[in-house]
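FORM 12-B: Structure-to-Sequence Request
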């Protein structure tokens, strides 16, 4: 027996064939490619934070974006490593509050728990869940 509104699942299903494999986490299995990309991103971020003493507290105003123009959103998808390279260039050209000589009471260095909390909050993505009505009784996605 069909569930009420079961047609919606197929009618509004996203065609992911044109997207990179890492565009979304698979809802039913871990993906090695996504794991590797996330590990690379986390490694770059931790390397950046743990090498803060080697960079000045404030960026060189002539080099805010890693020596290149400000980034733009590309027309086509780009490889994951290119996104991470761009993010790394942005980090290199940003303020460095983790530097031991940085003095700022409004812009403190990022707490590890805050960085990880932001990742978890982004993964939950429940911003609108309380503003939307609950599903109709008897509705099932399966």
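FORM 12-B RESPONSE
SEQUENCE OUT:
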């Amino acid at each position: 027996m069909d569930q009420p509104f079961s047609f919606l699942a197929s009618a509004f299903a996203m065609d992911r064939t044109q997207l990179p494999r890492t565009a979304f986490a698979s809802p039913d299995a871990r993906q090695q490619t996504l794991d590797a990309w996330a590990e690379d991103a986390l490694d770059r971020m931790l390397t950046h934070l743990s090498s803060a003493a080697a960079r000045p507290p404030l960026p060189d105003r002539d080099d805010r974006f890693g020596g290149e123009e400000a980034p733009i959103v590309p027309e086509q998808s780009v490889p994951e490593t290119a996104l991470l390279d761009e993010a790394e260039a942005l980090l290199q050209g940003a303020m460095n509050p983790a530097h031991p000589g940085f003095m700022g009471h409004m812009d403190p260095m990022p707490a590890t728990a805050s960085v990880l909390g932001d990742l978890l909050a982004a993964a939950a993505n429940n911003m609108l869940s309380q503003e939307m009505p609950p599903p109709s009784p008897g509705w099932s996605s399966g």
